[in-house]
What we know:
Elements: E1 5-12, E2 19-22, E3 34-41, E4 48-54, H1 58-64, E5 70-77, E6 81-100, E7 103-111, H2 114-119, E8 121-126, H3 132-143, E9 147-150, E10 162-167, H4 168-179, E11 182-186, E12 189-193, E13 205-207, E14 218-222, E15 225-232, E16 243-247, E17 252-265, E18 271-279
Parallel strand pairs: 9-12, 13-16
Antiparallel strand pairs: 1-2, 1-5, 3-4, 3-17, 4-7, 5-6, 6-7, 8-10, 11-12, 14-15, 15-18, 16-17, 17-18
Helix pairs in contact: 3-4
Amino acid sequence: xxxxxxxxxxxxxxxTVGRNISSVRPDGLPGISIDFSIDHARKKQPGRCVLxxxxxxxxxxxxxxxxxxxxRVELGYQDEGTFVAFTGNPVPxxxxxxxxxxxxxxxxxxxxxxxxxxxxRVDLSFSEQVSAQDVFDEIIxxxxxxxxxxxLATALPFVRGWVFSGMxxxxxxxxxxxxxxxxxxxxxxLYVIDARNAVTETAPLFSSANGNLVGSPTAVEIEKxxxxxxxxxxxxxMKAGKPFKVESRNYNGFYTAQEVSYRGSxxxxxxxxxxxxxxx
Length: 280
């Protein structure tokens, strides 16, 4: 358990206490060894989390088998506390045991808002002109999606009304196409914002002076835009769509995170966040 790092996994049905699988026992000694790979992107496809939990019980594995269970992953350090890096649902067929040398490893795959994404449906029928806000409100009513930041203030109305019946994700595609917005799900909540803007949240700073950079930022191309890739120690609240600031020899300024990945383990090797963003 190097450097006091902590990985905690909570799993249970909504409204229940559930189980806590921690890399640190209450007495401070090493607990369960946990590997994690978490990917968030500013896209409609759900964020993804893959966990490997070493030598856990059959009862613990059973808690992950329901696709309605909530899986929450928290990362951090013993002297600083933890933050939520992922929340989602197990995917069908994504939970199983495998052998890794002499150890029995539970593999868990989950998606951010995955259940609503997979099965959510809507039936919409507006015969006359209707505002984007009214359409959105009806989508939310039928899907029960929690909402994050939603920017519809200048969205064009549906002048000829709108009729749609099918998967909610397809309805959202058509909806944002009409109003020139982008939708994505983060921590189970639905966001609808201008594709050129960041979510209105405080921008964390990545810099050597701040002590959180791992190596030097590098240039990348993201959807035909020139951007930057930053490797750093895990930062609370760093998710796709969030603004961030870089101070380094070759890169200085504010960016919008298009892709955010957490990689590492509770016991060895990597323990970092990788952020890929474009200038604001």
